[in-house]
Design brief:
By secondary structure, the protein is an alpha+beta fold. The chain has a single domain, classed as Alpha-Beta Complex (tt1808, chain A). It has four helices and eleven strands, in the order E-H-E-E-H-E-E-E-E-E-H-E-E-E-H. A six-stranded mixed beta sheet has the order 4-7-8-9-10-11, sandwiched between helices. A hairpin with a 4-residue loop joins strand 9 and strand 10. About 30% of the residues are buried.
Length: about 180
């Protein structure tokens, strides 16, 4: 993960910069480049996003956006999955999804990548919760655990076959064991 100090760079100025590859986030006045996703990360992100969208999109309950830039509360973050309930998906006057999202997702999901700083990732989830997110998941592929964060509650670690909390409106039942079984092809 590369960190660039942006002296006196504002969020607005950061958002005017060209996108980088891999993308960068703006956190506490610093530009932090996200690590390039690797195999396990990519597989978990794709399968989890698909499972959420299979359960929620047709009924117009929610949608999981992969790698969606969300700028709010003096940060510009790119959660691995940003899940918005259907009524909170930002839309243009013509009903399309805008390019610029200026809201916290209802559910933010992060998958720890090799060489990624766990506390920075957890800090992003906490920032989302402090700005209206209802739920945060932090997936740790090495020990096959999922740390669940809810507003005003102590975090809870999930492993094995204990059902994971999801957004209340979603007809989705998952366990950490099911999620990490997706890594076995």
């Amino acid at each position: 993960m590369t960190t660039l100090t942006a002296q006196s760079l504002t969020l607005e100025a950061f958002l005017q910069l060209p996108e980088t590859e891999p993308p960068s986030e703006y956190i506490n006045g610093q530009i932090i480049q996200k690590p390039m996703p690797k195999g396990r990360h990519s597989r978990l992100q794709g399968k989890l996003g698909g499972a959420i969208n299979d359960a929620a999109e047709e009924a117009k309950l929610a949608y999981a956006f992969p790698e969606l830039r969300c700028s709010f509360g003096d940060r510009s973050l790119i959660p691995d999955l940003a899940v918005f309930t259907w009524d909170r998906i930002p839309k243009t006057a013509t009903g399309e999804i805008p390019d610029d999202i200026e809201a916290a997702p209802d559910w933010t999901i992060e998958i720890l990548s090799p060489k990624q700083n766990a506390n920075k990732v957890l800090g992003n989830i906490l920032h989302c919760l402090n700005h209206g997110s209802q739920l945060g998941w932090f997936l740790e592929p090495d020990d096959e655990s999922i740390l669940v964060l809810l507003p005003n509650q102590a975090p809870r670690l999930y492993e094995g076959d204990i059902p994971l909390p999801v957004l209340a409106s979603l007809p989705l039942e998952l366990t950490a064991a099911q999620v990490f079984d997706w890594l076995r092809l």
